[in-house]
Write a structure and sequence with these properties.
The complex is a heterodimer of chains A (115) and B (115).
Chain A: E1 5-7, E2 10-13, E3 19-24, E4 31-37, E5 44-50, E6 53-56, E7 65-68, E8 75-79, E9 88-95, E10 105-106, E11 110-114
Parallel strand pairs in A: 2-11
Antiparallel strand pairs in A: 1-3, 3-8, 4-5, 4-9, 5-6, 7-8, 9-10, 9-11
Chain B: E1 4-5, E2 10-14, E3 19-21, E4 24-25, E5 32-39, E6 46-52, E7 60-61, E8 64-69, E9 74-79, E10 88-96, E11 104-105, E12 109-114
Classes of the chains: A mainly beta (115), B mainly beta (115).
């Protein structure tokens, strides 16, 4: 079966530009998560969706970051006015349910480089 | 305070030997889950093992076992009979029931298996 997919795998942009990162979760998974992983660090939570709604967006660093999941499946992470400090690997994960044992299945990530 | 602490930035182990990767955690929530993930150089996070805070026995999954010492708040990963393919980054993560569904990750341990 297909795992979590993310596109693009790599994105290079210039400071100040707008970018969109896409995540396609495992079919049937209702929970979707976005994380950011900087070099030499563990993943850092950004936002969690249960269905179509953002159940927890407490990890978004500022209002330049926004994410949507309009139909409860595919999600898009949007970053406005990118800064060099936004350069990182952005990981998406999905799980069948939320809480408890439910492991999160991760995608391969999108490596974002802001020049 | 860090939720998850991994104090070993890098570890080496001889092929076929066992190795222990350390993880300590900090929480006041009585209900939580502990997870270990492997991240090869390809970047994808691979789930290895889970331990619930109320589980009476240490979790085991094949060559992976979790040495759970609740009073000491430690959840060390033991890999037995190391293989060359075990060389990767290993992350310990925690989910608390009272802070939603995000995972808190440690900074990881880089494991190198020597032939």
């Amino acid at each position: 079966g297909a795992g979590v997919s993310q596109t693009p795998s790599n994105k290079v942009t210039e400071k100040g530009k707008y970018v969109e990162l896409r995540c396609d979760p495992i079919s049937g998974h209702t929970a979707l998560y976005w994380y950011r992983q900087s070099l030499g660090q563990g993943p850092e939570f950004l936002i969690y969706f249960q269905g179509t709604g953002a159940a927890d967006d407490s990890g978004l660093p500022n209002d330049r970051f926004f994410a949507v999941r309009p139909e409860g499946s595919v999600s898009t992470l949007k970053i406005q006015r990118t800064e060099r400090g936004d350069s990182a690997v952005y990981l998406c994960a999905s799980s069948f349910g939320s809480g408890g044992y439910n492991e999160q299945f991760f995608g391969p990530g999108t490596r974002l480089t802001v020049l | 305070a860090q939720k998850i602490t991994q104090t070993q930035p890098g570890m080496f182990v001889q092929e076929k030997e066992a190795v222990t990767l350390d993880c300590t955690y900090d929480t006041s929530d009585p209900s939580y889950g502990l997870f270990w993930y492997k991240q090869p150089s390809s970047g994808e996070m691979i789930f290895l093992i889970y331990q619930g805070s109320y589980d009476q026995q240490n979790a085991t999954e094949g060559r992976y076992s979790l040495n759970f010492q609740k009073a000491r708040k430690s959840a060390n990963l033991v890999i037995s009979a190391s293989q060359l393919g075990d060389s990767a980054m290993y992350f310990c993560a925690m989910r608390e029931s009272n802070t939603g569904n995000q995972f808190y990750f440690g900074t990881g341990t880089s494991l190198t298996v020597i032939p």
